[in-house]
Amino acid sequence: MAEAATLQKSAQGAATQHFDVIIVGAGISGIGGAYHLTTQRPGVRFVVLEALDDFGGTWRTHTYPGIRSDSDLYTFGYRFKPWVGPPIATAAEILSYMGEVIEENDLAPHIRYQRRISAARWSSKDKLWTLEVTGSDGVETYTTNFLWMCQGYYRHSVGYTPDWPGMEDFGGRIVHPQTWPADLDLKGKKVVVIGSGATAATLVPNIAGDCEHVTLLQRSPTYFVPGRNENELANTLRQLQVDETWIHEIVRRKVLFDQHDFTRRAIEESDTVKAELLEGVKMFLGEDFDIAKHFTPRYRPWRQRIAFVPDGDLFQGVASGKASVVTDEIERFTKTGLLLKSGETLDAEVIITATGFDLSVLGDIAFEIDGQPLDFAKTVTYRGMMFTGVPNLVWVFGYFRASWTLRADLIGDFVCRLLAHMGQKGKKQVEVALRPEDKDMKIGSWIDPEDFNPGYLMRNMHLLPQAGDKPEWRHTQDYWTEKDLFPTIDLDDAAFRYS
After folding, report:
1. For the domain with range 161-355, which CATH number is right: 2.120.10.30, 3.90.1150.10, 3.30.2140.20, 3.50.50.60?
2. Is the CA virtual torsion 393, 399, 405, 409 positive or negative?
3. CA gap 400, 70 in Å, rounded
4. Is the C or the N end of the chain the one with fewer CB within 10 Å?
5. Which helix (H) or strand (E) holds 155?
6. Helix, strand, coil proportions of the chain in percent (round to 5)?
7. How far apart (Å, rounded) are the C-alpha atoms in residues 467 and 447?
């Protein structure tokens, strides 16, 4: 069996399972990584360790009404498997797609569920990572030559909710979308959804039909792109009976080109793009709605993520009167709802805090390098995927302004090429290090807040690795450049140190 581990005996006598590569996480990145290893590095012994009891990551843990992608599936889907559904897909559709990838490529034997990693220790002497893993039958020990971190970037177990005054006084129920209760009944209830991002925009129209009324309460507005949930180019190509593999590639390239141009314009022609986005909202809400107050952000487009609103469902809910929008700040919770800083009150029986998540850097695992605790915040990142002083480890961190999976695929190719290069050189260890020409390089935060500044990053920037002011020492967010650059990365550059 391809995933069969090498069994060794530890000093305590317990079996230690060894793999050439261990992938952490069976979400969109981990399943993609397993595919790339299977197809590009056949014969490599690997296993995927997943803390949940099934694959899917975000699409498994998030169960709130209407959960869907906020990226189009022609680019959020893998490059190697055509997407044939609507551009914006539900969690169930994405899970079905991932399940097909697992089945079609016989990846299931490589995945072990209910395996939570508590510690990862690197030994330069042995050139190995040793993982302490809690499984359904107790603690297990794994060793591996290479660690591929595909666990995402936020804490799945609990979402982020600010600590507002008076929360304990509220007589109703407070719910975070990330831990949606199965027994929550909203029928006929007054509901307030706090937030202004993609989650809030998804929730409001999907619960509006059940509630007596739902109010979207936001501290400040965000940008949205309303539009039809279909791709006209894909429809035309299907009418012409073009093969789905070709359709996927052609539509994918067109979407990526358009996204790249939109990002450029958002920076270079901010006022024009802003006007276009607001005009899209006005088409649904009309001239009389106060768009300036409720849907005009304080920042230029793309300094925070812009979510696609399929068929303008959020705005349709507001226009129909089933939902309303209030832009204000919370003074305190009360027994019957919320007191706002303007003095206005909002009555509620259920308050949903769609207020984001907590960053989790590399899965909250206790890392050690040769017996010393590792503080990732003291490392410098190489292209947002490797870290100075951390051997044989790559982390998948996707794009903010494009689909996550685009970068997962690029990093999949990179890891496979790096493993092959190490084999050719007869080397067991690789790490990145600043070169002599980098000694005076300016070091700063993981990402420039002037460029991109969502709350979850700003709250947790101190946890993330540092970045340099050269492209190779930062996460550039520029897929259009990286798609051509990653395949040409010089693995013998002085930034890579082998031993």
Report:
1. 3.50.50.60
2. negative
3. 11
4. N
5. strand 154-159
6. 35, 25, 40
7. 7
For 399-447, write each residue's pLDDT tens digit. 888 899 999 999 999 999 999 999 999 999 999 999 999 999 999 998 8
Nearest alpha-carbon partner for 30 in 38, 42, 18: 38
The CA dihedral of 361, 364, 370, 373, to the nearest 10 degrees, is 90
Joined tokens for residue 306: 């812009």
Provide the sign of the torsion angle of the four alpha carbons 167, 168, 172, 175, taken in this order.
Answer: positive
Task: Enumerate the H helices of 88-152 as residue ranges.
Answer: 91-104
Q: Are 414 and 394 in contact (CB under 8 A)?
A: yes
Q: How far apart are CA 67 and CA 57, in angstroms?
A: 13
DSSP 8-class letter at 480: H
Fold identical between 6-156+359-498 and 161-355? yes
pLDDT digits (tens, 9 = 90+) for 253-305: 999 999 999 999 999 999 999 999 999 999 999 989 999 999 999 888 888 88
Residues constituting the chain: 499
Q: What is the dihedral of CA 227, 233, 237, 240, to 10 degrees?
A: 90
- 């300094």: which residue's tokens? 303
Q: Which secondary structure element, helix H or strand E, spans residue 468, and what is its range?
A: strand 467-468
In tens, the pLDDT along 129-155 reads: 999 999 988 999 999 999 999 998 888
Of 109, 80, 71, which is closest to residue 416 (Cα–Cα)? 80
Q: Which tokens sit at 220?
A: 């400040």
Residues 6+ apart with CB under 8 A from 418: 394, 430, 491
Distances (CA, A) of 318 to 190, 224, 284: 15, 14, 9
Write the DSSP symbol of residue 160: -
In one-letter notation, the amino acid at residue 99 is G
6-156+359-498 under CATH 3.40.50.300, yes or no: no
CA distance linking residue 124 with residue 370, whole number of Å: 6
